[in-house]
Amino acid sequence: MGFTEYNLLAESTLLNNPEIYMGRILYSGNRNASSWAFRAWLALKEQNIPFREEIVDIRRPQRWQNLEGIGEFSPPAAVPVLDDDGYIIFDSLAIMEYANELGNNDLLPDDIQARAKARAFSAWQHSTFGRVCPCLSFESAFYPDKKSLSDDEKREIEKVYSIWEGTIEQFGGDYLIGNYSLADIMLVPSVVRFSSHHQPDHRWPKTETWFSRLLDRPFVREWLDEASRLEPVYLPGYRNDP
User: Fold this and answer.
1) pLDDT for 27-50, tens place per residue?
2) Nearest-CA neighbor of 178 among 167, 163, 166?
3) Helices 151-171 and 182-195, interaxial angle, to 10°?
4) Model pTM?
């Protein structure tokens, strides 16, 4: 599927909701690989922002040609990109904050310290968080055979679980920083990749509950169900025919 093609679900949604036909387009990516597009898509959905979606196939070898096409109007030549009636916004975090401000502006806490904490977790994810178990890509969560983690890798994940546990306890709400926020949206793909290989247990009860609550949100479930069902995963030595 190239970057000018929609998936069947997106096309059906558009046909049944003509009000979505407008000048706001999110250039997204493969459901089982594009974790950054997942974040931008989720923020728009959670804020009930109408948009049209174009799926950019970022699998090899077509990836390079498709992203070159994106580069004609977006400097990073990557997804996600939001084209809001000709106004180009690139970078997932920028799109998320834009979606928040277009909508109810309730995806960042009112309290200045809580808001700073939410932004800190988002910035960490955006910068160096990928160094935590870099062997576990978002896509690896959908592989039929999961990687066995070393003791060191498990300890890396458990250290993060302890940080999340303490944060949830500190703010005393249903989500990481109290109410559902951009921090939760930013961390969804990491929650998916960690939990698919090393679930939190009784040592992190609040984190365990947060995972369940987060992954059961309707739009999160919609994306993950498509990732599991609609797009086959191709691995060296593994064949998964449609």
Assistant:
1) 999 999 899 999 999 999 999 999
2) 167
3) 150
4) 0.86
